[in-house]
Structures are given as C-alpha cells and as structure tokens.
Amino acid sequence: MTIRVAVAGATGKMGQLATRLIEAADDLELHAGLDSRAPLTALDGADVVLDVTHPAASAAIVEHAVRGGIPVVVGTSGWSADRIVGIERLVRDTEGARAVLFVPNFSIGSVLGTAFAALAARFFDSIEVVEAHHAGKVDSPSGTAVRTAELMGEARAAAGEPPVAAPHVDQRARGQLVAGIPVHSLRMTGLLAEQRVLLGGDGETLQISHSTLSSSSYEAGILLALRRAPEAEGVSVGLDALLELGLGAR
After folding, report:
1. Where along this sequence does the record place binding of NADP(+) (predicted)?
2. Nearest-CA neighbor of 185 among 212, 146, 217?
3. 9 is in an annotated binding site
4. Has 10 been labeled as part of a binding site?
C-alpha cells in the first residue's frame, strides 16, 4: 500500500529532505507540499501529515490533522510537555482522531544518546546539558535537549533519587532549568547540531555526546516515522517509541 504524505514546511531544509525521500520511496507518495501561504485544507486526504514548520505554526497544523482524522508526525521543535498534554486531551476528545507522534530528533544516534543519558542519570547527582545548533535555529533549548532532560528527571524520580544538584539557579548564565537540570544553548554559524550531557560524581565525570554532521543522519528516522504513523495510536514522544527502547511514560 502506498502512503500519501502531506509535508507542511516543504520549502524548508527538513521539508526538502523529506520530500526527496518520499519521492524516492516506492511505498510513499507526496500528497501535498505546503509552504507558509498554503491553506491547511491542502492536508486533507493525506494518509500522514509531516509537520516540519515553525513553532508558531505547528499547533494549528497538528490540530487540523487531529480534527481531520489524519495521523501526524511532528518534527517541529518547541513542544513542551505542557503543550503536548493539551494535544493528548484533544486526541481523547476528538472522535476519529488518529496518532500524533512528536519527534524532537530524527537521528537514530541522537535518540540512543538520550537513552544512554536517561540510563546514567540516576547514578549521578550533578548533571548539565549543553546543546549547540546552527545560527538559524529559532527555538532554545532544543526539543532534543528538553526531551533528554525530562527523561533524565523521570529516571531519577522513578528510582527514588532526589533532583540533581543545580546551585545558583538565580544566575541566568547557569542555564535554563528543564526538569531541574540546567540546559545551555549555543546558536552559531558553522554548526549543524551537537549535544553533550555531562554527569558528575565523586572523583569522576561522564560525558555522553552526539554530533550531527549531515542532514543525511535524519533520513532513516523520517522514513521510519512516516511508515509507522498510519498504524500508530494515541500520542507518543520520541523516535524511541518506534525503536522500542522503553523510555518514558509516553
């Protein structure tokens, strides 16, 4: 069966990459490619919507897809846990609603890095995250960093561990607290995407680092999400939900 995909944000870098992948795949078909001027009704009739737009535009796209009974893969950053709760409520209350899969990062390596950080988090009381992206990325912290911090916080809570030691939280230079963990964001020309999780304990430190060197690292994750979305149910967060890594409650 051919899966018809509507790409919202088709003129952006991720949208162009997704469009090329869809057109090259035997089991996928481009239903519509939307730019910022296209009406949301162009999504109608698709088997899956891929949202790779802008944080300010993403909510309307997701809500339209949910109300229209179309599964949606959300690759747009800026979705906090609180905002996702609102989408969970919308899905529950909307007859015929289909799956919503939030994917902070389509890179398999990045997803594994987050999984390793969540595994390690309960063994270290001092944890910070440093994430760096290209100068054009408008949101901070990144969705990947938020997801990583939230999962580390959940892992510590599930193990009965206290919040991490984050002194001097009144100093903005010490990072934005996400799930009690300081997150530092860099936006610089010459970078694509990097994340380091630093964990400190008595007499030792551990670093879990991932670097994105090319947008080709997203290809396998995009294809996996598009192919699995039509059969998925409910709201899930992270590509790990499709890789069966067992991370988090969602």
Report:
1. 37
2. 146
3. yes
4. yes
